[in-house]
Specification:
- The chain has 829 residues and is mainly beta.
- Among the domains are: 186 residues, no CATH class; 146 residues; 108 residues, Sandwich (Immunoglobulin-like), CATH 2.60.40.
- The protein has 4 helices and 63 strands.
- The strands form 9 sheets. An 11-stranded parallel sheet has the order 27-28-30-33-36-39-42-45-48-51-54, with helices on one face.
- It is globular, with a radius of gyration of 27 Å.
- It comes from Tahibacter soli.
C-alpha cells in the first residue's frame, strides 16, 4: 500500500510536478573529488522529489575505489539523479559522445558504483565510459543489507518501500574492459538500456554462483517490472551471458506484469551465451523481441526467426574496440520499423539516427543510406501529377511512387524560412516506403523543451481547402509506410495526413495548424481504413513532439479497426508556449479502434472533450501519464470532459492498471468531469490513480452529475453502475502513526474489490459531500462476504492526514468497473 507523505507540498507543487519536476540542484564537475561530492549530495543532501543533475566535463577520471559506495541509500524519497558526460569547460556546451568522458577505476580491486532509487526516484546515466572496474565485493544499504555480488554499475530500487514507479535509464554509455560478476545490473520497476556498448569485459562468478551477465535486468513481479533494451551492442564478454533478463517470483507479486518489455535491435554476439531469459514457472512477463542479431539464446527467450539475424555482424574496427559496422554488415538498415518506446535520437557516439530506410541494429548507425533520394529545390506546384514542376515536392512524390525500394525526400529550397508550398491540387498518393524530412531544409531548428514548441520549421504546406496533404490510400500494400518529420500543415479540409493503408507509419516533430492567414485543418492526423499501427510523437527527444492546434474537428482521429497506434508527447490544443489557447474541437478521438496507447501527451483547450473513447470496438486502450487540461505549469481545461467514454466503449484503462499504482494521468477540469463514462458507455473501464483538479465530478458514471449507490450491485448501466464505498470515519492513532479509514461497500457477493483512497483539501465543488481526487494516496483490496454488504477498515500509515484534509474512495471490481468517487470524510481525534 502506498503511504501518505508530504501531502501539502505535493498539492502546492502539482502543476510543476506535471511539467518540469520539482526543485533541482546542478553540479558541474571536473575532478574526482567534485564528482564524489556531487554524488554525496544526491545521497544525503537532496530534499524529497529533488532532481540532482551532475554534468561531467570531458576528460578521464581516475577514480580507483573513490566511488565504491551505494549512493542513494540515505536519500530522501523521490530524489532523482542525472549523471551526464560530455561537457566542455564550465559546462558551457556538450558533446554527448562517451569516448570523451571516461570513469576509469584503474583495475582497483573491488571497485564499482551503486545507485539506489527510492519512492518515485529516477536515474539517468548518459554519455560516459566505465572502464577497468574490478567488481565491487559488496554494496551495503543504510540498514546494513548487502546489495550486490560484484557489480561494476548497480542501479537498484529500495527494497524497504513501495517502489513500483522507480525508473532508470542508461543511454549512450560504454562499458569496456571491466571485471565483475556482472558489468551493468539494473533492478527497478522501469529500466531502459539504449545505445550502449558492453564489450571486452571478463565476468567472474561470485562465490558459489554463476556469473550474472554482462548486462543484467531483474524483473520483479511485485513492482510490475519492465525492461526496454534497444540498439545496444553487447559483444566479446567472457565467462557469462551477454544479456540476462532475470525474472523473479517474489512473494508479494501477482505473478504477472502489466508493463510490456521490449528487446529489439540489439547486437549480442560472441559471448558464451548471448541472450538468456529466466522466467519462473507461473509468472508472466510480457516481452516483445525482434530484429536482434545474436548467435545463441536460451530456450525461454522469444526468438523471431523472420526478423532476427544469426550471422557475424562484421565490425569495421573491433580490434580497437569501437565496434562500428563495416560497410557489408548485415545489421545496416535491417532494424525494426517501430520501437514501442521510440527510436533514440542519436547513436552511441552522438551521431544522428536514422540514416536510410530503417534503423541499424546495434549501438552504432552507419552512414550508408539505402534509400533513393530526391531533393526538393523550389516551392512551385502546378497541380499536375503527370508533368509536375521540376524540383517540386509533387515531382519528388511522383518519383517515389515509381521507386522499387525505400525513397527519401529532402529539402534544399532557396526560399526564406518558412518556405510555403501552396498546393494547386492534392499531392500523389504514397504507396511505397517514403520518408519526407523537413528537418533537412536550411534554417530548421529543433524544439528543445517538452510540452512546448520552440523549434523553427521551414517547410509549410498550405492546403487552400484541399482534402489532404499526404495520403496513404486503402489500396496501398501492407509494406507501404510514410515517415514525416519537421513539416508544417494547414488548410486541409479532411486530414492534413490521412493514413488509410499500409502500416508502421511515423509522424514526428511537425506542426499542424495555428498558421496565420490560413484556414484550420479539419483533422491534423487521421489513422483509418485498414492501416496498421502508427507512431505519432516520440519519447526521449523533445524535437519529436507534434504540435496540433486549432483543428475544426478532432486533432488526432483514430478509427482504424486494427488499432495499435502510439501517441506520445504530443502538444495538443496550445500555443507555442504550451499554455495559451489554440484548442481543437476534440483533442484525440478513438472511434471503434482498439489497443492504442496515449502517453505523456498535453491535451487542453478543446471545445469538446480532451479525449473521446467511442464505439463498442474501442477496447484495450491505455491512457497513462498524460496531462489532460494542463500545459506547462498551467491549468488549461477542456470545455467538455477530460475523457469521455460513450457508445459501448469498454475495458479501457485510464490511469493505473488494475493491480498497480503507476500510470496515473493529471487532469485539470472546469465544471465538466475529469472522466465521464456516459449512459451509453460500456463496462470494464478502469479509472485509477489519477489526480484531478476541477469544479465538477472527478469521475462521473451514467447520467451527468453525482449518482447514488444502487441497492443491488452490479446493475445494468455503464461500468455496471459500480457502487462507491460509503466512508464512516477517519481516525488517527498517534501512538502508532496510522490513520484508520472505516466504511462499507455494497457489492457482489464474495468478490475482491480494489479500493483506491484519495486526498483533497476540500470536498467536491460540484457535488456536496462527495470527495475529490487531488492526490492518489493508496490502494488495497477487500473481499465482500456472502451478503455483499461488507464493512472495512483500511490502515493508512504515515499520517495524520492533516487539518482541513479529506479522504474519499472508489471501488473497482475484478473486471475493471470503477465507481464514482464516494463521500468525503475529515479526520477526527
Amino acid at each position: 500500500m502506498s503511504t501518505i507523505k508530504s501531502i501539502k507540498v505535493t498539492l502546492l507543487t502539482a502543476f510543476a510536478l506535471w511539467a518540469n519536476g520539482t526543485s533541482a540542484a546542478t553540479f558541474c564537475v571536473g575532478t574526482v573529488s567534485e564528482l564524489a561530492s556531487a554524488l554525496d549530495y544526491y545521497d544525503t543532501g537532496a530534499q524529497s522529489d529533488e532532481v540532482v543533475t551532475i554534468r561531467v566535463r570531458q576528460g578521464s577520471y581516475n577514480v580507483g575505489n573513490a566511488l565504491t559506495r551505494l549512493f542513494g541509500a540515505n536519500a530522501a524519497d523521490g530524489v532523482s539523479l542525472k549523471l551526464l558526460g560530455g561537457y566542455t569547460a564550465n559546462c558551457a556546451s556538450r558533446q554527448p559522445d562517451p569516448r570523451n568522458t571516461t570513469i576509469d577505476a584503474g583495475n582497483a580491486f573491488g571497485s564499482g558504483i551503486g545507485i539506489m532509487l527510492k519512492g518515485k526516484g529516477a536515474a539517468t546515466i548518459e554519455a560516459l565510459t566505465f572502464s577497468r572496474f574490478d567488481g565491487a565485493t559488496s554494496f551495503v544499504s543504510a540498514d546494513g543489507v548487502k546489495m550486490s555480488r560484484g557489480e561494476v554499475l548497480l542501479v537498484t530500487r529500495d527494497f524497504s518501500g513501495d517502489s513500483d514507479e522507480t525508473f532508470c535509464e542508461l543511454r549512450q554509455n560504454r562499458f569496456v574492459r571491466n571485471r565483475g560478476n556482472s558489468v551493468v545490473s539494473l533492478w527497478a520497476a522501469q529500466m531502459r538500456f539504449v545505445n550502449n556498448l558492453v564489450a571486452d569485459n571478463a565476468l567472474v562468478p561470485a562465490i558459489g554462483t554463476q556469473s550474472d551477465g554482462a548486462a543484467m535486468f531483474t524483473l520483479e513481479s511485485d513492482t510490475d517490472a519492465q525492461v526496454t533494451a534497444t540498439n545496444n551492442t553487447i559483444v566479446d564478454n567472457t565467462l557469462g551471458p551477454g544479456m540476462l533478463i532475470n525474472g523473479r517470483a517474489d512473494s508479494g507479486g501477482s505473478g504477472e506484469s502489466d508493463r510490456l518489455s521490449e528487446i529489439v535491435d540489439n547486437i549480442v554476439w560472441n559471448n558464451p551465451t548471448d541472450i538468456v531469459f529466466v522466467k519462473p514457472s507461473g509468472y508472466v512477463y510480457p516481452l516483445v523481441a525482434s530484429h536482434n542479431l545474436y548467435r545463441s539464446a536460451s530456450v525461454g527467450f522469444p526468438q523471431s526467426p523472420s526478423t532476427d539475424v544469426r550471422t557475424d555482424p562484421r565490425f569495421d574496427d573491433a580490434l580497437v574496440a569501437t565496434y562500428r559496422l563495416a560497410s557489408n554488415s548485415p545489421a545496416i538498415n535491417r532494424g525494426s520499423f517501430i520501437q514501442l518506446q521510440g527510436f533514440p535520437p542519436r547513436d552511441a557516439e552522438g551521431k544522428a539516427r536514422i540514416v536510410g530506410s530503417r534503423v541499424d541494429i546495434g549501438a552504432y548507425e552507419s552512414p550508408i543510406d539505402d534509400a533513393t533520394t530526391a531533393i526538393v529545390t523550389n516551392t512551385g506546384d502546378n497541380g499536375s501529377n503527370a508533368s509536375p514542376t521540376p524540383g517540386s515536392l509533387r515531382a519528388a512524390l511522383k518519383a517515389a511512387s515509381a521507386a522499387s525500394g525505400p525513397f527519401s525526400i529532402r529539402f534544399n529550397m532557396a526560399a526564406a524560412c518558412p518556405a510555403i508550398v501552396s498546393l494547386a491540387a492534392p499531392l500523389p498518393d504514397v504507396t511505397g516506403d517514403v520518408t519526407i524530412d523537413g528537418t533537412t531544409q536550411p534554417g530548421w531548428s529543433p524544439t528543445l523543451l517538452f510540452s512546448q514548441f520552440n523549434g523553427r520549421h521551414c517547410v509549410f504546406l498550405n492546403g487552400l481547402g484541399k482534402p489532404w496533404a499526404l495520403h496513404v490510400p486503402p489500396t496501398a500494400p501492407s509494406t507501404a509506410r510514410l515517415v514525416v518529420r519537421g513539416m508544417v500543415f494547414s488548410g486541409f479540409s479532411d486530414a492534413a495526413i490521412k493514413l488509410e493503408g499500409g502500416r508502421n507509419h511515423r509522424i514526428s516533430g511537425s506542426q499542424f495548424g495555428l498558421v496565420p492567414l490560413t484556414v484550420p485543418n479539419r483533422n491534423a492526423i487521421r489513422v483509418t481504413g485498414n492501416s496498421g499501427g502508427a507512431f505519432i510523437g516520440g519519447y526521449d527527444d523533445p524535437a519529436e513532439q507534434n504540435f496540433i492546434a486549432g483543428s475544426s474537428a478532432e486533432g488526432i482521429l483514430l478509427d482504424n479497426a486494427a488499432g495499435g497506434s502510439t501517441l506520445a508527447n504530443n502538444v495538443i490544443g496550445f500555443q507555442a508556449d504550451g499554455y495559451g489557447y489554440a484548442g481543437n474541437a476534440t483533442g484525440v478521438a478513438i472511434l471503434n479502434a482498439k489497443n492504442n496507447l496515449l502517453q505523456r501527451n498535453s491535451i487542453g483547450h478543446s471545445t469538446g472533450s480532451g479525449v473521446l473513447l467511442s464505439g463498442a470496438a474501442s477496447t484495450g486502450n491505455l491512457l497513462q501519464d498524460n496531462g489532460i487540461g494542463v500545459g506547462t505549469n498551467h491549468g488549461s481545461p477542456n470545455t467538455g470532459a477530460g475523457v469521455l467514454v460513450n457508445f459501448g466503449a469498454h475495458h479501457n484503462t485510464i490511469g493505473s492498471p488494475l493491480d498497480a499504482s503507476w500510470g496515473g494521468n493529471y487532469f485539470v477540469a472546469d465544471t465538466s468531469p475529469g472522466v465521464w463514462i456516459s449512459p451509453s458507455g460500456g463496462n470494464g473501464n478502469s479509472v485509477l490513480g489519477n489526480r484531478v483538479y476541477g469544479k465538477g465530478l472527478d469521475i462521473d458514471i451514467g447520467q451527468a452529475g453525482p449518482s447514488a449507490n444502487v441497492p443491488v450491485n452490479p446493475a445494468s448501466g455503464p461500468n455496471n453502475l459500480q457502487n462507491w464505498p460509503v466512508l464512516a470515519s477517519l481516525t488517527y492513532d498517534a501512538a502508532h502513526g496510522i490513520s484508520y479509514l472505516a466504511g462499507t461497500l455494497n457489492g457482489a457477493v464474495k468478490t475482491a474489490y480494489r479500493i483506491d483512497v484519495y486526498y483533497s483539501y476540500g470536498c467536491s465543488a460540484g457535488a456536496p459531500g462527495r470527495g475529490a481526487a487531488q492526490v492518489s494516496l493508496a490502494h488495497t483490496q477487500i473481499t465482500t462476504g456472502p451478503l455483499g454488504v461488507t464493512p472495512f477498515t483500511i490502515g493508512v500509515p504515515d499520517g495524520p492526514v492533516g487539518p482541513g484534509g479529506f479522504l474519499s474512495a472508489t471501488a473497482t471490481d475484478p473486471d475493471g468497473n470503477t465507481s464514482e468517487i464516494g463521500n468525503c470524510v475529515a479526520p477526527t481525534p
